[in-house]
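not sure who needs this but someone in the group chat was asking about 43 kDa receptor-associated protein of the synapse from Leptocoma aspasia so here u go. i didnt clean anything up, its just raw.
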Amino acid sequence: MGQDQTKQQIEKGLHLYQSNQTEKALRVWMRVLEKSADPAGRFRVLGCLITAHAEMGRYKDMLKFAVVQIDTARELEDPDFLTESYLNLARSNEKLCEFQKTISYCKTCLNMQGTTASLQLNGQVSLSMGNAFLGLSIFQKALECFEKALRYAHNNDDKMLECRVCCSLGNFYTQIKDYEKALFFPCKAAELVNDYGKGWSLKYRAMSQYHMAVAYRKLGRLADAMDCCEESMKIALQHGDRPLQALCLLCFADIHRSRRDVQTAFPRYDSSMSIMTEIGNRLGLIQVLLGVTKCWMIQKELDKALESIEKAQELAEGLGNKLGLLKLHCLCERIYRMKEQQQELRDHVVKFHECVEEMELYCGMCGESIGEKNNQLQALPCSHFFHLKCLQPSGPRGCPNCRRLSVKPGYV
């Protein structure tokens, strides 16, 4: 298969894929991969296969094609192709929750000296790195990466990237419980879809609606949360987007739990867990198990709640997800208080505070914890964040966290 024929077949596959004929598109692209003698064409078709498998939640296949793409990029001896292939490798590992590997491959991308074309990928690299740091609960570095990605998006007038970053920032602020910002950023993403997204994939609309649903639920606006989640789920079902279906099912379950309708919540959690397990989203599984634990607690089934916590703890420790561990210690504290088991209660209180210290989840101004309840937060240019109310009276006097880190003992 020559260069022109390769190009035609790739376009044919893209047309099929955009018409929701995914399996036909995959067969066309696999034939190109088997028969094409054009390395640049093979590189491009591998990119199509990586994107398609990512959207279907087939993350192990995504990783397999990313590894082949790196070999093809080396054969082409082109730094731009190599940067793009390492970015795909980083994204594959991000989806599989291999966050340390993601960060390592992202750093490789940023260290490559490519042309202007590969420099334009730096925003996407920063976004992927930010998502990985967030998975590890390293909040300052995550925010730093997201803000860097946002600057790249603005400088390159890349509205799609801006939309994706806004959704990640929504997730970021959801996790540290500034629900006003958690809603603001996906609403901004939805505005971008409305203003610029006529030619975009519907996944951008679905993604923004899902993150809005999560924020609305946290704010107690359950009817709004349900409306947004239903719209997101409808698109996810139309496009066979298994990862988003799993997240929507989790959100539906959380909404029903917020209404204390655990009998409706449990089957939604089970369905979400099934897809999360199938695609390998271990971070999502932790969230499902947290929700299931809270349902058992509502029903006063404390031993069953502890069983769910044990499974979630194993996953959180394996991933290095410190925020997940903090939430589990918090739930254990409540359970052992209800069971009146004082020693276990004290153990989890100590572990909870160790997690807070390790993640620096406290305000450097007032010393109170961050992420315990809904609070307006403000980040300084160094990406350390504080209670907004604590920063306003004192004004900008530099970052107390940075000052404290600069005078740590141990340097001679």
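also The domain at 1-96 is CATH 1.25.40.10 (Serine Threonine Protein Phosphatase 5, Tetratricopeptide repeat). if thats useful
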